[in-house]
Q: What sequence folds into this?
């Protein structure tokens, strides 16, 4: 892991900007005659002060992300000796503070302050937000001696929303789990070596021994960004799953990097893992443009990601979340059946790779049933599927029934939902061969067994666009008579993927069998990424946040 | 040799012959299996002879004690193994090569039966048994001692990994636990055998879980009486069964989409049933 000082986050010193640009340092002005349309803040959730806590908790009014606001001296003209000037936040406002000369004058508990103004002097205030996506109003009111409102003006205060990056955004840094005990087949060294070869220094390998053998690095954290005209804070969502990897997101807290947990620790389910929280590229749905895409996450009836997290994501508004049914999966994450990929030749500039058991079965049926499948042959659930040949798979009526149901009852309705809620059409989809099996011992509820990928889930992939080159890392399916990741061109599943994928993509089929595939995950589950955020939401996504909630 | 000499000889030799077998049987049934096992001094030859014993518990115990004698280091490793890893959904996972090494099978089963591990760990141990060729026989022997329904149900799921799962499936269909009967009905699609008559009986099982599984499997298996049995379940008291009956009916009879009782389910009080009808009747 890089030390906090080495962390690959964009440095953007708001304080420094303020010194260099004195005009900006003074901040916008709020008077009875004029007010800016809106004051946009960066949430002060990072640790610019370097004390190991979010600045909001410890700043004392001197954090770099506290915005200046000036009430000019001329605003005080006409205020009689017995009259008062009030600055107020509406009752119920949460997560906004106003500072004056190092003192907190307005907050959730103090919603009204009689302004201590001095004739002839500007009043300088600091405004601070705790979280992304807060919408509030700051009211300046001139009251008569009897308490009647003489003049009043309201300023809309917004903290920039959290934007989660979709797969088409350029990658700045990648974390990959490194699993190796030196003696057994239980390692992902082929995956590690391919990443190292392709990414060079842009990757951090995460040691399993330091994280109590928790290999699910995708699930523990989700990295997004909060961007305003003043700069950028990278915002790490720390899952309440709290596995051995829990220290990893927490270690990223630092200057311009916030780490927050949404939801209640101890109330987690599999749906709180962040392989179950993904983002589409830009979409238009029923005429409404979502230039930052829409968040999609999986649920099962009344079960799903923690309601606290969902509420927070909904409050950000510009990536309005949709919920997809993942109830039929043993693990229950959306990244098990779909991913977005860039495709310059596509009408929308991207395609959706969607798991296709029909294609998977067609390919298996077309093979010689006697074809040996060494990787599938091992009988124990830690290592294989107990299927020594292609024939042992395709002749199993129960397996065929399961896959038929997955298509009929789950993937076809899901495809229809994606068309409706993400504005997709049939031509936007790419079929990726994948067959599912019922997972031994995975009882989702009374008598219901969850499924997972039997052939390694190639849709559970990672797209990394860097310097104009797009690399895609996906699982080697081993649907061939090989026990090592060689002779990949002879694999009909790989051939089918190569044929269907956009041709500009550099595809890397990695061996993630023992660590990830047999643990019910794939390449995406062992990887996490920091991506360059889109900027300019206050312009191109203004229509999504124009109404105060 | 007169008969008195014979009786005397038997009286002397019987305890010598019977004691080791009784000792193993006593270990097998001991409330503190590990202590009883450690105190035992039964010879390897005797243990070998007990592999053919008429009692399944004696055979299982003798096999484990024999494996322990032959592979002491492996036994220590398996005793101490902890599932440090977890599957992505959070269930424990060993991923330990020792569990699939030759000779390890009886030791894994012994720990599963007597190790005192939590259910999820026992399920992880069970999942490692199919690394060994004879696992099906061992599980059949151990069946009465797999005390948790989840263990027996998972054993049935693993039958998709073997070609001779018939006898075990049959036991599953007659199990006392609904979860196990339901899994047996489900797995009847993967295990070759004449299961259709049993499934026709299972569609009226007391448990909705079993009825739903049987209806589902009949929908795929078909055969005489299947369509009528499934049609009758369209009005089952359980929404879960009605859902499965909708899918099964449409598989068995292309005209089922015009059956009044199926069309009535479009207004079923249960949203899952309504959704199933909508999805299954949707044009491809």
A:
């Amino acid at each position: 892991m890089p030390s906090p000082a080495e962390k690959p986050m964009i440095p953007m010193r708001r304080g420094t900007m303020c010194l260099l640009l004195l005009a900006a340092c003074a901040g916008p002005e709020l008077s009875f005659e004029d007010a800016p349309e809106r004051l946009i803040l960066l949430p002060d959730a990072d640790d610019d002060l370097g004390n190991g806590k979010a600045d909001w908790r410890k700043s004392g009014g001197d954090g770099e992300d506290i915005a200046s606001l000036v009430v000019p001296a001329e605003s005080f003209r006409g205020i009689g000796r017995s009259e008062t000037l009030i600055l107020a936040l509406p009752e119920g406002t949460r997560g906004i503070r106003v500072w004056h000369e190092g003192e907190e004058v307005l907050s959730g508990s103090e919603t009204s302050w009689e302004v201590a103004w001095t004739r002839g002097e500007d009043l300088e205030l600091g405004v601070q937000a705790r979280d992304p996506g807060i919408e509030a109003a700051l009211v300046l009111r001139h009251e008569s001696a009897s308490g009647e409102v003489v003049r009043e003006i309201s300023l809309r205060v917004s903290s920039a929303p959290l934007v989660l990056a979709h797969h088409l955004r350029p990658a700045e840094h990648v974390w990959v789990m490194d699993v190796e005990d030196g003696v057994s087949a239980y390692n992902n060294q082929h995956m590690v070596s391919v990443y190292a070869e392709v990414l060079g220094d842009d990757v951090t390998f995460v040691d399993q021994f330091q994280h109590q053998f928790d290999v699910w690095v995708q699930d523990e954290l989700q990295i997004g960004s909060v961007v305003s005209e003043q700069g950028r804070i990278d915002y790490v969502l720390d899952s309440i799953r709290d596995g051995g990897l829990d220290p990893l997101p927490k270690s990223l807290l630092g200057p311009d990097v916030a780490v927050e947990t949404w939801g209640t620790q101890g109330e987690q389910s599999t749906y709180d893992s962040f392989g179950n929280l993904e983002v589409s590229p830009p979409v238009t749905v029923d005429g409404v443009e979502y230039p930052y895409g829409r968040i999609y996450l999986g649920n099962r009836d009344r079960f799903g990601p923690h309601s606290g997290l969902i509420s927070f994501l909904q409050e950000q508004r510009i990536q309005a979340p949709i919920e997809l049914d993942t109830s039929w999966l043993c693990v229950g994450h959306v990244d098990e059946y779909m991913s977005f990929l860039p495709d310059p030749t596509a009408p929308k500039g991207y395609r959706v790779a969607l798991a296709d058991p029909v294609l998977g079965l067609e390919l298996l049926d077309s093979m010689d049933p006697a074809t040996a499948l060494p990787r599938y042959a091992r009988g124990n659930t830690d290592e294989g599927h107990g299927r020594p040949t292609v024939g042992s798979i395709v002749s199993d009526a129960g397996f065929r029934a399961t896959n038929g149901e997955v298509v009929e009852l789950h993937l076809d309705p899901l495809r229809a939902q994606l068309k409706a809620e993400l504005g997709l059409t049939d031509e936007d989809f790419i079929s990726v061969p994948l067959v599912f099996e019922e997972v031994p011992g995975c009882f989702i509820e009374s008598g219901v067994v969850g499924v997972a990928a039997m052939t390694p889930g190639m849709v559970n992939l990672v797209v990394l666009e860097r310097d104009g080159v797009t690399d895609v890392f996906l699982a080697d399916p081993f649907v061939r008579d090989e026990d090592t990741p060689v002779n990949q061109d002879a694999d009909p599943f790989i051939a089918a993927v190569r044929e269907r994928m956009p041709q500009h993509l550099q595809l890397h089929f990695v061996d993630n069998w023992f660590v990830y595939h047999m643990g019910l995950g794939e390449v995406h589950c062992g990887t996490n990424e920091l991506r360059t955020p889109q900027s300019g939401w206050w312009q191109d996504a203004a229509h999504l946040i124009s109404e105060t909630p | 040799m007169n008969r008195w000499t014979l009786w005397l000889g038997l009286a002397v030799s019987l305890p010598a012959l019977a004691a080791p077998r009784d000792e193993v049987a006593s270990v097998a049934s001991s409330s503190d299996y590990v202590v009883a096992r450690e105190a035992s001094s039964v010879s390897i030859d005797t243990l070998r002879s007990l592999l053919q014993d008429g009692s399944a518990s004696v055979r299982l115990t003798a096999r484990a004690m024999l494996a322990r004698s032959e592979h002491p280091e492996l036994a220590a490793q398996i005793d101490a193994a902890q599932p440090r890893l977890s599957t992505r959904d959070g269930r424990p996972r060993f991923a330990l090569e020792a569990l699939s090494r030759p000779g390890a099978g009886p030791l894994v089963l012994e720990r599963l039966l007597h190790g005192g591990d939590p259910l999820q760990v026992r399920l992880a141990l069970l999942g490692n048994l199919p690394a060994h060729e004879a696992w099906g026989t061992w599980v059949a022997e151990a069946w009465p001692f797999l005390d948790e329904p989840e263990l027996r149900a998972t054993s049935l799921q693993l039958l998709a990994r073997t070609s001779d799962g018939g006898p075990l499936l049959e036991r599953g269909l007659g199990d006392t636990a609904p979860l196990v009967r339901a899994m047996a009905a489900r797995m009847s699609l993967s295990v070759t055998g004449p299961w259709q008559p049993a499934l026709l009986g299972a569609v009226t099982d007391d448990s909705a879980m079993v009825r739903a599984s049987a209806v589902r499997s009949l929908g795929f298996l078909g055969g005489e009486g299947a369509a009528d049995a499934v049609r009758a379940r369209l009005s089952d008291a359980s929404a879960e069964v009605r859902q499965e009956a909708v899918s099964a009916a449409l598989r068995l009879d292309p005209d089922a989409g015009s059956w009044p009782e199926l069309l009535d389910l479009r207004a079923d009080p249960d949203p899952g049933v309504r959704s199933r009808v909508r999805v299954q009747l949707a044009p491809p």
In short: Residues 73 and 79 of chain B are 10 Å apart (CA to CA). Chain B touches chain A through 54 residues (CB under 8 Å). Chain B has 17 helices and two strands.
